[in-house]
TrEMBL record, chain A:
It holds the Pfam family TctC. CDD domains: PBP2_Bug_TTT. Belongs to the UPF0065 (bug) family. The keyword Signal applies. Keywords: Signal. This is Tripartite tricarboxylate transporter substrate binding protein.
TrEMBL record, chain B:
This is Tripartite tricarboxylate transporter permease. The keyword Cell inner membrane does not apply. Keywords: Membrane, Transmembrane, Transmembrane helix. It comes from Azospirillum oleiclasticum. The chain crosses the membrane at residues 12-33, 45-71, 105-132, 144-160, 197-217, 319-340, 352-376, 383-403, 409-425, 432-450, 470-491. InterPro entries: DUF112_TM. Residues 18-437 form the DUF112 domain.
Automatic annotation (TrEMBL), chain C:
Residues 7-148 form the DUF1468 domain. It comes from Azospirillum oleiclasticum. InterPro entries: DUF1468. The chain crosses the membrane at residues 7-26, 38-59, 79-96, 102-119, 126-147. This is Tripartite tricarboxylate transporter TctB family protein. Keywords: Membrane, Transmembrane, Transmembrane helix.
Length: 320, 501, 161
């Protein structure tokens, strides 16, 4: 019976491609993740996709394309057919332009919704002399060339840009500091603990295990409010009286030119997912912050992100 | 004792046993297919285990990755197509044994050494994880640079009969490794405006091309109907006991090197296998020999090392939440997802969970022996089919393997181009193993060198200022000087060392 | 295909020249003591030296050896054809798979390779179709590798487990 049904459906699908346009989505969807399997971008997207599948009633395939630090995956999203069946994970992308790797802009994508955000923090090793943000900033201001700051990932990226922006506002010559790139937060933590670098920019959840062991110390987190689970870590407002909001964000977006009704369907599905207790529980367990922004809010975030990145990259001397 | 009861209680669970058995078979099959790696086997498990309880979820990854690393030896020994990059170091040795009719010895050595290495690293993990994690955390980019440079000296051992040709191959591999974004500034190199090249050529596609596709091309020139099927693989278990005793130092050395290298974040099972191979070749009397015994010694050392490194990688992962390799990066995210937060406190708060995870290592590595033998037998049976049927299947696996790494057709093109190149290289007596070595170590060596220079503002003395780093540096330089000196003094060259030309 | 060592040396020499020349065009960003071209230029110089040495040593044999010797095509009458099948199959896969879907492309490649290797066409078709169905089931349905479905796109929801 099932076989016959399937056979008929195959025939129908082959002969009547137009008849299938009735309701979106009527076939499996794809979310391109410009990161390797197992990382933060991959994990959060899989948690989200599990909820969206329930709403759409269709399986979602996650396609990991982590090569080139995400450039390959983002390019795939940009050049996908804007029919709503292929969308992708967007994250801070403006750094690629300054480095001459790619020229992504907000106009390349259809922003749908933001679902995750984690704040950047400035960390030192457990043996470091710096106990608070103010003294560290004063030292960096006095002798910028003496210090090395690990960016966790590539420099000019999600974690270091907001921190460099904060330092810039404090009048620190950020272009004289040695910013050390790495292959992820973990590579930086070993450098920080072994004394290879003096500071590191990373998210708090990633550093949690080493913080518990007293091997790492957070000086401040770039969040307007204390981060849940890390209430003892001072925000920049508490540390030096300047509120800063900086870090990564993860959003779903499609290629430019997606039809408005289909974009709205996705936005609704993501809103439903983000509001669901099971999504919130999974994100909390995996130590990821939930940050909801609708399509409009995401578009604003993206243009703000591009402007911020350009300002800091210029000051750092990456952009000529 | 309370912990022991707790652990036993958690282990005696039918569901857990089924998960372990299922992921064991899954890992063996994936690892035995050229191009599908232990990492991929683990990554593909994530969407499934996300619905499981914490312990079975982690058990699935541990079992599948251990099995996959071993299973990579099977196609390596029987067809000269390493199933995973971790088997590439000793593929030629194992294939050589197979061709002289000793397939059972090559595979038995690989299987039992894998299990030994895995068990040894599990023991270290259970006894000394916090202590070793401290050592791993004292490594900065200087130490990693020297480690990678030491690894590169392996090239002189896998160079084949001519050192010059081996170096040419190594340099070609290093050149391939520079394609894509530079690891420090992110500047695109050799990309010619192609987005796909921005991500580099990719280790897996190049490995598939160099070993598997080039082997298919060579095989195509022989008559498929007349092609002699490989002889039956003889008894695997018989005689393995005395062999293991004879090579006990190699086994132990490999297990030790593997556990340590695995514990270092950023160096995984493939690098562990190469380093152990080089040490066996250089520093042991048995491993230097060019006969059957020498090959077995090298296979056992390297094969023990790549499985031991899997356990080693869990040392920093469980103690500090720092992944020792890409597989443990996945494990850590799964552990977080399941509420077992890795870190020093895990050993205090939930010792039952952590020691159950360690116990699963023991189970997986013991289970490897019977299942591994079954897998070897099944694979041997497939190979007795006529080549006309086997070749298209292998080619399709190569294509699928290359595609599933990053889901691009570009990688499929790479295996074709590199396959032809590998064929031409071999036909002209340019060995391919050094090129793979260069491709594996190239990114690590460049990235650590450049990062160190950034930190010191260009002062080269930094490479000798730290105690561990300086010591490693001196060892590395001596190893290179010794290697070159031995080539220049042909009279004193031990049998089996490659000559300069 | 085996060529005289002079050509082997020249090949590596040429690759070395190219790598070095390209590396010199890479400007170090202002904050780096050693730029992105540093390591590639070392590799390039190494390739030039090694290639040059291989070529020079090869000069000694240039009169004794043939410059180019082709593989023994005559060992098997269909050898050259089967040799070309491998790259051709890869090229065909890349060209066809997005439009025709994996199942169909894989079947075509299987049948072509089997028939060229001397298997009877009908038998080849059966083996090829069966193998392709198994591969689709394993990779696309179970492992969720995003293989193109081609004409089956609209019903692929039922085929992904």
């Amino acid at each position: 019976m099932l076989a016959r049904f399937t056979a008929m459906a195959v025939l129908a699908g082959l002969l009547l491609p137009g008849a299938a346009q009735a309701a979106f989505p009527d076939r499996p969807l794809t979310i391109i993740v410009p990161a390797a399997a197992g990382g933060g971008g991959d994990t959060t997207t899989r948690i989200l996709a599990r909820e969206i599948e329930k709403t759409f009633g269709q399986p979602i395939t996650i396609v990991n394309q982590g090569q080139g630090g995400g450039v390959v995956g983002l390019t795939s999203i940009r050049s996908a057919k804007p029919d709503g069946y292929t969308v992708g994970l967007l994250f801070p992308y403006a750094g690629y332009k300054a480095m001459g790797q790619a020229d992504f802009a907000a106009t390349d994508f259809t922003p749908i919704a933001n679902f995750n955000g984690d704040s950047s923090a400035l960390l030192v090793g457990g043996k470091s002399a710096f106990k608070d943000l103010a003294s560290a900033l004063a030292a960096l201001k006095a002798e910028p060339a003496r210090y090395r700051i690990h960016c966790s990932g590539g420099c000019g990226s999600v974690w270091d840009i907001p921190v460099a922006g904060l330092m810039l506002d404090q009048g620190i010559a950020v272009n004289r500091i040695a910013w050390i790139p790495g292959q992820g937060a973990a590579t930086g933590f070993t450098e920080l603990v072994s004394g290879g670098v003096d500071f590191q920019t990373a998210s708090l959840p990633e550093a949690a295990a080493l913080m518990n062991g007293g091997r790492l110390r957070p000086l401040a987190v770039l969040s307007p409010t204390p981060v849940p689970g890390f209430e003892s870590v001072p925000t920049t407002a508490q540390a030096i009286g300047t509120p800063v909001d900086g870090g990564t964000w993860r959003a779903i977006g499609g290629p430019a030119g997606m039809p408005d009704d289909i974009r709205a369907r996705w936005e609704d599905a993501i809103r439903k997912a983000v509001d669901s207790p099971s999504f919130r529980a999974a994100m909390a367990k995996a130590n990821f912050g939930v940050k909801w922004l609708d399509s409009k809010g995401l578009a604003d975030l993206m243009s703000q992100h591009e402007a911020d990145t350009e300002r800091v990259m210029k000051a750092l001397g990456y952009v000529k | 004792m309370v912990i022991l009861e707790d652990v036993l209680g958690r282990l005696l669970d039918l569901n857990l046993m089924l998960v372990i058995a299922g992921s064991a078979v899954y890992g063996l099959v994936l690892g035995a297919i050229p191009g599908l790696t232990a990492l991929m086997a683990s990554a593909l498990l994530v969407p499934i285990i996300i619905f499981m309880d914490p312990i079975p979820a982690v058990a699935a990854i541990i079992t599948a990755s251990a099995m996959a690393i071993f299973a990579g030896d099977i196609p390596g020994a029987l067809m000269r197509m390493p199933g995973t990059p971790a088997s590439a170091a000793y593929t030629d040795d194992a294939y050589g044994l197979t061709r002289s009719g000793h397939a059972a010895l090559a595979l038995g050595a690989g299987l039992f050494a894998s299990a030994t290495g895995g068990l040894a690293s599990a023991a270290v993990l259970a006894l000394a994880a916090p202590l070793l994690a401290d050592i791993a955390l004292s490594f900065s980019s200087v130490e990693y640079f020297w480690l990678a440079a030491l690894g590169l000296s392996c090239a002189t051992f896998v160079a084949g009969p001519s050192l010059l040709r081996g170096l040419a191959s190594l340099l070609l591999g290093l050149a391939f490794a520079t394609v894509g974004m530079d690891p420090v500034s992110g500047t695109p190199r050799f990309t010619f405006g192609s987005t796909n090249l921005l991500g580099g050529l990719g280790l897996i596609p190049v490995l598939i091309g160099m070993f598997a596709v080039s082997e298919l091309l060579r095989g195509a020139l022989a008559d498929p109907q007349a092609e002699k099927a490989p002889a039956r693989i003889g008894p695997i278990v018989r005689g393995i006991g005395p062999a293991m005793w004879r090579h006990r130092t190699g086994l132990l050395r490999g297990s030790g090197i593997g556990t340590l290298v695995g514990a270092l974040p950023g160096a995984g099972s493939d690098i562990a296998a190469w380093i152990s191979y080089a040490v066996a070749r250089r520093a042991s009397r048995l491993g230097r020999r060019d006969d059957q015994d020498g090959a077995v010694e090298r296979i056992m050392s390297a094969s023990a090392a790549n499985n031991a490194s899997l356990g080693g990688a869990y040392i920093p992962a469980t103690v500090f939440g720092i992944p020792g390799d890409a597989i443990t990066a996945i494990v850590i995210s799964v552990m977080f997802l399941k509420g077992i937060n890795p870190g020093p406190t895990l050993f205090l708060n939930d010792p039952g969970a952590i020691y159950t995870i360690f116990a699963i290592f023991f189970i997986a590595n013991i289970l490897m022996i019977p299942l591994g033998i079954l897998c070897i037998r099944a694979f041997g049976a497939i190979l007795r089919l006529p080549a006309a049927y086997v070749s298209p299947m292998i080619l399709m696996f190569c294509i699928l393997g290359a595609f599933s790494v990053d889901n691009t057709l570009f990688a499929v093109g790479i295996i074709g181009v590199i396959g032809v190149l590998g064929y031409v290289m071999e036909a002209n007596r340019i060995p391919i193993a050094p090129a793979i070595l260069g491709l594996i170590l190239g990114p690590l060596i460049e990235q650590t060198f450049m990062t160190t220079m950034l930190k010191s503002h260009g002062d080269l003395m930094i490479f000798f200022e730290r105690p561990i780093g300086g010591t490693l540096g001196v060892i590395t330089i001596l190893a290179w000087v010794a290697a070159v000196a031995l080539h220049l003094l042909p009279a004193r060259r031990p049998a089996g060392e490659p000559a300069l030309r | 295909m085996k060529v005289n060592d002079v050509f082997v040396g020249l090949f590596f020499l040429a690759v070395g020249v190219f790598v070095t020349a390209y590396a010199w065009t890479l400007e170090p960003p202002r904050h780096l003591a050693y730029g992105p071209g540093f390591v590639p230029s070392l590799i390039g110089i190494g390739l030039m030296l090694v290639g040059g040495a291989i070529g020079l040593i090869g000069l000694r044999t240039v009169h004794a050896d043939r410059l180019v010797s082709w593989p023994d095509w005559s060992a098997s009458p269909r050898g050259p054809l089967r040799f070309l099948t491998v790259p051709a199959a890869i090229a065909a896969y890349i060209t066809l798979v997005d439009g025709m879907g994996f199942l169909l492309t894989s079947t075509i490649i299987f049948v072509a390779m089997l028939v060229i290797a001397g298997v009877r066409p009908l038998r080849g078709l059966a083996v090829g179709l069966l193998s392709s169905i198994v591969l689709t089931a394993v990779f696309a349905s179970v492992l969720h590798v995003p293989l193109p479905w081609g004409p089956l796109q609209s019903v692929s929801g039922w085929l992904i487990w």
